[in-house]
Amino acid sequence: MKFQVDGAVAIVTGASSGIGWHLCRQLVQGGAVVIAVARREQRLLQLREEIANDSDRFQFVVGDVTDAAVRGRAMELANRLGDGRLDLIVNNAGVGAIGPFELASEERLRRIMEVNFFAPCEWTRAALPLLHRGRNSVICNVSSVLGHRAVPDKSEYCASKFALHGWSDSLRAELASSGIQVTLVSPSTTSSEFFDSVIDTQAGVKSKSVGSWTPERVARSTLAAIVARRSEVILSLGGKALVYADRIAPSLVNFVVQR
Ligand SMILES: NC(=O)c1ccc[n+]([C@@H]2O[C@H](COP(=O)([O-])OP(=O)(O)OC[C@H]3O[C@@H](n4cnc5c(N)ncnc54)[C@H](OP(=O)(O)O)[C@@H]3O)[C@@H](O)[C@H]2O)c1
Questions:
Q1: Among 159, 185, 192, 212, which residue carries the largest CB count within 10 Å?
Q2: How distant is the alpha carbon of residue 33 from its chain centre?
Q3: Distance from the CA of 92 to the center of ligand 1, in angstroms?
Q4: CATH number, domain 9-258
Q5: How far is ligand 1, taken at its centre, from the CA of residue 82, in Å?
């Protein structure tokens, strides 16, 4: 049974730029009611302007995903708009950090884990009572190829996405009999604002990734995975090559990554 976008009630975190921004647009265009979440209110107002024709189906909550009060406001709104039901939650908000673990602070590790891992868990916990009343409900967790294969200088980020991956697999099995699907989406490098907002990273330090998808394309593939109620998708060819090479020949990939 496919997920039906038209008429669905959805929460999307990290909606003020990049993948989340485009996903909100595409969901609203498809007929969904969307509750968008992010800290930058101006950006969310801009997004509402962009989807002006359908703006009555676009609502937002401004705040930090790690704040329980923000989560509570979003759930209340979803409960009201969906009349007790929620069909989709997309845990997309995320942050990165670049640089050796040894030189980084404890705060950096804790912040990355709070935003990228603990927040998706707690948003999902809060959403589950509503999702149980949804139509073919989906929990979509936006991870990364770095949640399948770790690389140097992104240790905290990789750890957070590995945690999201493991938790998603476990939750999917737990929820299988309820009909709620957990869809884990793993993009590769995406040309969003992501690298402008890395935490506690020296100016001028760049990610070494090659090739990238636009956030619009990542959002489109994410939506396709949600509609098909897939368990897991690795989006780019390069991402698939890295993940499958690591499964077949981990020592070889270790050698390449160390260089
Ligand atoms: N870009 C890549 O290369 C790449 C690759 C693989 C996976 N991903 C994953 O894709 C997801 C989306 O990233 P993106 O590329 O679209 O980056 P982006 O353009 O930087 O978007 C990140 C979004 O998350 C929100 N956000 C960050 N911290 C937040 C917080 N504490 N509370 C609320 N919202 C928060 C930001 O909004 P505010 O700043 O307004 O709060 C923004 O809307 C992330 O989970 C990321 O890990 C990205």
A1: 185
A2: 18
A3: 6
A4: 3.40.50.720
A5: 26
